[in-house]
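Hallway conversation turned thread

IA: we were arguing at lunch whether anyone had actually written out Redox protein end to end. Turns out nobody had. So, for the record, here is the sequence (139 residues) and right after it the C-alpha cells. Reply here if something looks off.
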Amino acid sequence: MKARVKWVEGMMMVGESPSGHGVVMDGPPNLGGQDLGVRPMEMLLLGMGGCTQIDVMMILNKSRQQVSSCEVILDAERADEIPQVFTRIHAHFIVKGRDLSEKHVKRAIELSAEKYCSASIMLGKMAKITHDYEIIEED
C-alpha cells in the first residue's frame, strides 16, 4: 500500500490515499498553519474510528441486525512529552435500530477490537484502548 502526502504551503498538506481520494491536513496557526484541515494526529484517531466502525457494521449486518445508525465517539489522551503519542483512547459506540440484540452489538465491538481492526490493534500497542456502547431502540 502506498500513500502520498504533498506539501501545499505553510503547514498545509494534501494526502492522497491508495484508492485515489484526497484529504486536506493542516497545522494550528501557532505552528504556521491556517487551520484549514484536520491535524495529522486527528486523522490517525479518525482512521481508527472508521476502521472499527466498518468492522462493527459488517458484523452486525451479517448477524441480520436492523441497524439504522451507528456512531463511534472517540476520546483520546496524548503524552505530555515528545513524542506526544496517544496514551489512552476510549471508543463509545451508539447503535440505533430495531430489535437490536445487546449480545450481538457487544460481540461485534469485541471482535473488532480483538481480531479485525488493524488500526485499533496497532494503536493498542502504545495506548490503552477501551470500548463501551449504548443501544437506542427505534420504533
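OS: looked through it. The domain at 1-38 is CATH 2.20.25 (N-terminal domain of TfIIb).
IA: good, adding that to the notes. The mean pLDDT is 96.
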